[in-house]
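Running low. Any example?
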Amino acid sequence: MPPSADITATETPTGRRPGGDRPSLAAWHAGWAVAAALLALGGRWLGGIEGPVFYGVLAMVVPGVTGLALLQRDGARERMTLLGLWGLAALTAACLSGGLTGPLAGFVFLPLTAGLALGGVRLVQAGALGVGVAAMAGLLSAWLAGPGPHLPALAAISALLTAGAAALAVRLSWRQNERRMISAETEAGKVERLLAAQPGLTLVLERSGRVLAAYGAPPAALPVDPRFEQGLGAAGHAPDRPRLLAAIDRALQGYDAVTTFAPRTALDRRVQLLLRRFDGPEHEAPRLIAQAFDGTGQYARELALETARIEAEAREAGKSRFLANMSHELRTPLNAVLGFSDIMRQRLFGPMPERYAAYVDNIHEAGGHLLELINDVLDVSKIEAERYVLTLERFDARELVSAAIALVRVTAEEKGVVLSGMLPPEPVDVSADKRAVKQIALNLLSNAVKFTPPGGTVTITVEGVGPYLELVVSDTGVGIAPEDVRRLGRPFEQAGEIEQRRQGTGLGLSLVRAFAELHGGRMSIDSTLGEGTAVTVRLPVAQVARPPAPEGGAEIIPLPVAGGK
């Protein structure tokens, strides 16, 4: 597969990798130091090189010897310092020998040669600057002190030495670049092999969706070669293309985009695509990086989960409809049983034996219990099927709570439980479903009386707190364990021992919670095992009374003028 982008070697500020060429560079400096020293000593011994010219040749030995320090420490700063020393030596030699008119004119170009040897564009530029400075210094010296001595042999030797050093410097620089190129190609090969071995497919895209490069293993249903000509958008099934193109547009805007589409060559499979914008150099248009994976397995799992969810919802709705219908079917004959048993209890058609009278009482009591259970089941099924519609009315909540207390008081007195209500003297006007609020109060009071032993107390408190109606039913009953509190409020969930569970159906608190949530409120339970329970219901249904407007309209109060006037 073609490469996706140009890979360039990372350079240091000097454009090289410190330490890789230190031995060769130190040998170049050592060779120059030896050659310059031999030229100075040989010329002095043979005659002809003396005075300032001799010292000019010796000055060129200094940077060569200093270059040996690169074996110990090498870096951008050290190389720039060494190049400065080359420039200073060339300036000294030019000033002492008459510059470009003297016998050491070739040495003027040694800073540029050293810049080539040291490597890096900035060092070469600095070396060229050093040549210019040395040439100007030599010109100034010739103008002030006259031209240098006429030594054609020395001039030729200095030129040859400079040319040889330049040739070696160019070769050394070429070898440095060659090593960097080989290293860059090796690193690029590693990156390409790493990208090619990844489990997914990585694509580099143009703004149009055309593929520029591809790495890795493509999904089975997404051939890569056609994408270089047709683009990524053409790979998707027609209904999925708008979603695929929208994901590309979103990624171009700088957001991460994820989408799934069906390949047009294999509609039974899915490809998951992740896209992100890639900003290159300023003069290049932004590109996209995309990763494609085979999403068939994940799609199948999600489809199976969605199917299971739909089936579960259908079964739940069917169960709720069945319970609602069965509740209606059961209530009709049960009402007849309760009606006839009530007639028999009142002995409207004459007396009956005491034994039969007891049976009738049991029938009426059991039928009433069964009717309450059916009503609860019917309400729960309606709520779960989302068929329960609130009928909002405005009323005083104290009246409903008082009626609920009256209904439960007989049971509380028979059991020996003290039932009391704490109602405010002012009306508590609310706008709510009257039957639902009454059912909340009845269920909470019935539960509290049912699970409070003889001698205990049950208290209901009603209060308007801002926009909320707050009902609190507290008792001194058996209490609820902490692990059971979290379960209560769901249909048919009960707490306590088996004997306690036999006293209820697990629908009372679930209806309270459901009715509260239908009104936009909530139910909370605070209980301590063995001490008692307090259930709080807060409904946002209270009608906040507004004070009447003052007679004659609002009073206008003048504001004081700034400055006290």
